Amino acid sequence: MYLGLKTGWNFGASLFGSILGFAILKPLSKALPPMFGGGYFGPKENVVCQSAATSAGSLGLLFASGFPAAYQLGLLSAKPADDIGRLITFTLCCAYFGIFFTMPLRRLYVCKLKLKFPSGIAAAFTIRSLHVGKNAAAMARKKTFVLIYTFCAAITLRVVSEYAPGILWDWHWSWWFYQGGWHWAACIESWGWIFELTPAFIGVGLIIPLNSAASFAGGAFLAWAIMGPALIVTGRAVGTVFSAAAPEYVNYSNMILDDPVNAPSPKYWFIWPGCMVLLCASLAEISANWRSLLASFYMMVQPILDKIRPRKHREINPDDVIWDPAPIDEQVPLWLWGGGVLTSTVLTMIIMKVQFGINPGVTLLSIIFAFIFSLIGAECAGRVSIIPVTTLGNFSQLIFGGISKGSGLSPMENQLNNGLTGMLAEAASYQCADMLSDLKTTHLIGASPRAQLYAQLVGALVSIFLSCGMYVVFTSAYPCINNLTSTTCSFPAPDVGAWRAVSVAVSAGTLPIPLSSGITAIVFGVFVIVQTFVKYKFTPQKYHDWFPNWNAIGVAFILGPINTYPMACLFGCIVATVWKKKSPAGFAMYGYAIAAGGIAGEGLGGVVNAILQIAGVSGAYKGTAAGCPLGVYCG
């Protein structure tokens, strides 16, 4: 929640759960008697621990996007403490159906398509490295030491850099030229071409394929170095000057828009092509692999079919369309995931009607769209470890804002309805992507998918109450989070601005999509579908890597103009490619250890910074603005 409100970015909790779970539970397993939790604690038990942590962390995203926007628009009570009952029940709605309908997707994404899920691979490597006994091989110990060293270096860099972010974290290199008199260089800074020393995303680059990293960076270059400037030159988008002292330094990501159709910011303009690319790319991939998806669902319902039509011998043949290596008794049966989907759906429909007055049919439709958007989130997480959940929620807002408008609801009722349905899609897609990443870890470790599901359910139960309570605490300490009139705030909450802008725009009298943006979105969508058809129909498998990864390109479209992450991923991937070529054994020994340490270290460094922020001794209070544009602290 802190990271989401502070930066608009969220890291999954799997690596945190892996490392902290080991640090806490491993000693307890030795010290306590079995009746109090003592006993064997190995890699499979560690997987269960990190799965619970992942589930507990996923619901905090709601309170870094949709809910603050609703309070800023005056759609709920004066303060969250007055709405604690409704916050808890709505979080309950979001907690479970995303978890349950993810289970039948495991065979497609993990077993059949074998998507990377870089965070899942890093978590699996972390868990394996942590469980090294005294008599383990020396090579295994070396991996563990490298992971620990990288982790400590990353967490130290993340904490120390808060006190000099313009020197130790973000290199605003074009601003240095601007200060030297090259005023044209400010446009490079304006379009977000900053290099960031982020161990997490450099670590992601070490894991993901070169195709994904190149597509991510290429999409950013296409959007924010070619198309974005062209929009400004032709007058189809506008920016706002940061300061009269530097008129060349322009904000192109403003989401508070007076006229989003005729005078959009480039960031708003790119929401619609980006969403269309993500939607078409994911659905085209699913359509191209429909036989695998159908086989996955068939394997889930096979036990019921066996009861209807008994067979003497039931075996899983490795030559089948999808082979599931998990034993039958560790797989999730149809009655469990199917019953969970049905129960959570009915419960959500009841709560949304009683608490917020939303038609049950609209709620059911929102859950269907949540499932579709979850496929997009899963594709993005599996290929580039980035989940554009806020944008998927914004896209859902657009759909259900139109439905609410057609139902004759007032603008405020429309804003509340499209905000809540958007959060359902946001939560489901984030849970689905995070859980599939955990299932990748489960697959690599050889743990039980059913045990992981139980852990996810327990973690979500904890998160329902903890997330709501923490949101009340944060907003009590920092009222500016929910106060639209505030000019300065310790929490910029960029996702909240986007959420609020879409809510207002979609409840307006006309379709809030610029004509040029809509046409571009359609053209991109058709092109992606045609290319995916050509890829699977006419191109041999060995040449598939030559096709761009459109999910990564779509993420780059909607992420910018913040190009630090694509650049860091590409840098990490280039390092990994050269390293593999020069020393394959060296990369196999240390590559994943460095990646896992960097990802986990930066994430936990953010937690430390949160504590320092609350204590009033963070970089925002004690740091320097040296190296930051306009001399304003940029941490």
Automatic annotation (TrEMBL):
Chief localization: membrane
Record GO terms (molecular function): oligopeptide transmembrane transporter activity
Classification via InterPro entries: OPT, YSL-like
Membrane-traversing stretches: 7-25, 84-105, 144-161, 181-208, 220-245, 269-290, 334-352, 358-378, 453-474, 513-534, 555-579, 591-612
Record's keyword terms, sorted: Membrane, Transmembrane, Transmembrane helix, Transport
One protein family per Pfam: OPT
Domain of life: Eukaryota
GO CC terms, sorted: fungal-type vacuole membrane
Subcellular location: Membrane
Topology of this chain in the membrane: Multi-pass membrane protein
Entry protein name: OPT oligopeptide transporter
Organism whose genome encodes this protein: Calocera viscosa (strain TUFC12733)
